[in-house]
């Protein structure tokens, strides 16, 4: 059973998500939080597998709550899935920086949301290309000058790993990376694993950030 904590400042939204989660035989809601402080406290008390986290909440917003959860060693197994809209581009990217495993639009279809919870609970990052590309490209149109040091990518990775990292940054799945580079799926996964280790990345979401911040992928690429 995948345990899910729902965090949103609107009771109706929380209730709707909880009902949806409980409707799936392999998922179960373990609590509801009306603000970021409560989300963090319930995460520590309930140790859910996944937190569905809204961004705009009182007392402590979803970004800071995400940062608090992912920074707590006792909550290492808790994954945060941020709920957002296209009106919150900068905030969604900041949530990835804070350690979120991915993000969804609030108008996501119910079946897709349940699948997203399963994906995140399994240790993968949820980075749908249509959402990822728009959010990250919009954010990186206004980076600090030092944020993009050059097109060579991060230091310490091989040329093939740079190619893989660039494709991750573009939102490619493992299967798509394997097809693009004409390698086996297991080889693509091996490259991803090495990148996670070399870049000390928590998950695939942080690899996307590394691809953009290192200059390996630029806004408007592909």
Largest sheet: 5 strands, parallel
Report the strand count: 5
* End-to-end separation: 39 Å
CATH level 1 class label of the largest domain: Alpha Beta
Task: Jot down its keywords.
Arc Repressor Mutant, subunit A, 49% helix, 2 domains, 10 helices, alpha/beta, 222 residues, Rossmann fold
Structure, explained:
It comes from Kitasatospora phosalacinea. Pfam families: GerE (PF00196), Response_reg (PF00072). One of its GO terms (biological process) is regulation of DNA-templated transcription. Keywords: DNA-binding, Phosphoprotein, Transcription, Transcription regulation. By secondary structure, the protein is of the alpha/beta class. It has two domains: 2-126, Response regulator (Rossmann fold); 139-213, Winged helix-like DNA-binding domain superfamily/Winged helix DNA-binding domain (Arc Repressor Mutant, subunit A, Orthogonal Bundle), CATH 1.10.10. The chain has ten helices and five strands, in the order βαβαβαβαβαααααα. The protein has a five-stranded parallel β-sheet, sandwiched between helices. The longest helix is centred in the C-terminal third of the chain and has 14 residues, at 185-198. The chain is globular. Residues 142-150 have low confidence and may be disordered.
Outline of the structure:
This protein has 10 helices and 5 strands; from the N terminus they run βαβαβαβαβαααααα.
Chart the SSEs and their pairings:
Elements: E1 2-7, H1 11-23, E2 27-33, H2 36-46, E3 50-54, H3 62-71, E4 79-84, H4 89-97, E5 102-105, H5 110-121, H6 129-139, H7 159-169, H8 174-181, H9 185-198, H10 204-213
Parallel strand pairs: 1-2, 1-3, 3-4, 4-5
Helix pairs in contact: 2-3, 3-4, 4-6, 7-9, 7-10, 8-9
Domain HTH luxR-type: 150-215
GO molecular function: DNA binding
Domain Response regulatory: 3-121
